[in-house]
Amino acid sequence: MSTPDTTLRFTEAELVILGKTADGLSAYMGVCVLAEIGCDVDSDAEWVIFATPVAVDEEPDDKTLHVQMGGPGATFVGGRGGLDLDTETYDCRYMWAIQITEDPEARFVRLDEQGEEFDFSNDLAGLLPFDLTDEALPDPDLELLEEIDDDMPDLDDDDQAPDDFDRIQRPKGPLH
C-alpha cells in the first residue's frame, strides 16, 4: 500500500476553514449544511461536498443534484446537525464542492451546483462564500479609554488642578 500524497490532502488549517464554512452556511441559511470529506479513488486527491439533508417527508426534486452522505467511514467537518452520520446514510441536496488538484496553477477547483467546474484558485479562502479571516476586533474598553484620555487636561508635575478633575464628565452607561 502506497502512502498518500500529502499535497493532495487538505491541511488541518484548511479543514478548520471548511468546517467553519459549513457552520456559517448552516447559520446563514437556517438549515443544516453538511461538509463531507472524501478521496478520489483514481487520483487519491481529497474533495469536500457541501449539501443539505432532505427531510423525511420531503418529495425528491428532480432538478436538484442529490448525493448520499454519511455512513461508516464518512468524515465530516463542521457541525452535524444532530444527525447520526457515523452509521446512517442520508439523501442530501448537493450544493457545491471543492476538489484538490495536481495542477500547480490551481490547487483547488470549485464545482457548481451541477457538479461542473466553476472556479479555481491556489487560495482556498477565495473559493468560499464567507471571509473567514481572524482579524482582531478592536477592544471597546481600550477605545473608551482613548476617548477619556483625550478629554483629560494635560497636567505637568507642577500643576495641580483638583477642581478640573471634578468637572470631567464620565461616560454614561455601562462600560462592558
Description:
- With 176 residues, this protein is α+β, with helices and mostly antiparallel strands.
- The protein has a domain at 6-127.
- The chain is 20% helix and 24% strand.
- It has 3 helices and 7 strands.
- Strands 1, 2, 3, 4, 5, 6 and 7 form a 7-stranded antiparallel sheet that branches.
- The chain is globular.
- The termini are far apart.
Shape: globular
Broad structural category: alpha+beta
Unreliable segments (pLDDT under 50, ≥5 consecutive)? none
User: Gap between N and C termini, in Å?
Assistant: 58 Å
Could you give the order of the helices and strands?
HEEEEEEEHH
What is the overall number of helices? 3
- Radius of gyration in whole Å, from Cα? 26 Å
Tell me about the biggest sheet? Answer: 7 strands, antiparallel
Tally of strands:
7
Oligomeric state of the chains present here: single chain
Mean pLDDT: 80
Helix content: 10-25%
Approximate strand percentage? 15-25%
